[in-house]
Amino acid sequence: MNMVRTVRELRAAVARARSEGKRIGLVPTMGNLHSGHAALVTKAAQRVDFVVASIFVNPLQFGAGEDLDKYPRTFAADQETLVQAGCHLLFAPTVEEMYPDGMAGQTRVSVPQLSEGLCGASRPGHFEGVATVVSKLFNMVQPDLAIFGQKDFQQLAVIRALVHDLNLPIQIIGEPTVRAEDGLALSSRNGYLSAEQRAIAPALYRSLSQIGAAIEQGERDYPALLAEQSRVLQAAGFRPDYLEIRHALTLRPATGEDRDLVILAAAYLGATRLIDNLHVNLDA
Ligand code: PAF
User: Fold this and answer.
1) From CA 11, how far away is CA 102, in angstroms rounded?
2) Which of 82, 134, 178 to mutate to test the pocket of ligand 1 (most atoms within 8 A of CB)?
3) Most buried residue, 62, 126, 179, 255, by most Cβ within 10 Å?
4) Model pTM?
C-alpha cells in the first residue's frame, strides 16, 4: 500500500491506476479503524482493481464542544488494518491540504430535508460538513464507486442524495453494520465508554430489535412502541437523544402503511453519544 499526503500526489497515483485500465473504489474514513472499516475496504477490493482509503478527521463536521480534539487517532494501527484489508492507496491529508484557504470561506455542499432532524437536529451543520468533505474527496479521486457503513444511516442517505442531485457518476454502496458479539455496533466512539458503560451499551441495539420484532409481528402503534423502549433505555442508564421510526428511503416519519422502515436511535451514555439503526423491510 502506498500513502500520499497531498491532492497532487493522490491525483497522480489515481491517474496511473486509471491509465492501467483499473476501476477505482474509495472508502472515506476518519481513522481509528475497526473491523467495520476493514469490511468496507474488503468489499471495495472485491469490486474494483484499485482501492483508495482516506483518513481525515474532518473539522468541518464537528460542532463546537464536540469531540474533534479527543477523536481517537491511531495512524500506525490504521495503516496495518488497511494493508490487511487490501487497500492500495491511503490518502491522509492535513487540515491545511484539505482546506488551504481555511474553513470560513470554504464552499459548502448542503443537502436540505434529509439533513434535517435526527442527527441533524442535535448536530447542526454536521451533515453540511460531511457532504462538503465527501464531495471534495469525490472530486479528488473521481472513483467509480464509494463505500460507506450503514451504521451512519442518515449520512448514507445524504451522500446518496448529493451524488444523485449533483449528477456524480459514482456508485454508492452501503455496507451492513458490523457488531460486537453482544450486538453493539462497532464505532470509534465505543472507545470512550467506561467498562460499566460498555456493559450497558448493547441495550441500544436490543431496543431497536424489540421494536423491529414488534413491527414484524404487526404492531403499528409506533408512538407507544417508541415510548416503551425509550423508558427501557432510560432505565438501563441511557439518556436518549432520539428514537424514531422513519421511511427507509425518504427518512420522513413512518406511517402505518409504510413497508420499508428504519428504526433509528441516538442516545448518550455519560458524555458519549452512540447511534444505531435497524432496517425493517416488511416486503423482504
Ligand atoms: O463516517 C465517517 O467516518 C465520516 O463522516 C466521513 C464519511 C469519512 C466523512 O468525514
Assistant:
1) 22
2) 134
3) 126
4) 0.98
Question: Given this model, what pLDDT does residue 2 score?
Answer: 98
* 54 alpha carbon – ligand 1 mean position (Å): 9
Q: Whose alpha carbon is nearest atom 2 of ligand 1? A: 29
Residues of the chain with pLDDT under 70: none
Q: Is 88 one of the annotated active-site residues of the chain? A: no
Predicted local confidence at residue 177, as pLDDT = 98
Start-end of CATH 3.40.50.620 domains in the chain: 2-175
**pLDDT for res 191:** 97
Q: Is 25 a pocket residue for ligand 1 (Cβ < 6 Å)?
A: no
Cα(81) to centroid(ligand 1), Å? 17
Q: What are phi and psi of 282, to 5 degrees?
A: -70, -10
The phi, psi pair for 21, rounded to 5°, reads: 85, 15
Contacts of 257 (CB under 8 A, 6+ apart): none
pLDDT digits (tens, 9 = 90+) for 150-178: 999 999 999 999 999 999 999 999 999 99
pLDDT the model gives residue 245: 98
130 lines ligand 1 (CB under 6 A): yes
Q: What gap in Å lies between CA 90 and CA 44, rounded to an integer?
A: 14
| Residue 246 falls in which region: left (phi positive, over 0), alpha (psi -120 to 50) or beta | beta
The reported pLDDT for the residue numbered 158 is 98
Q: Give, as one character, the DSSP assignment of residue 91.
A: E
**CATH class of the domain whose range is 2-175:** alpha beta
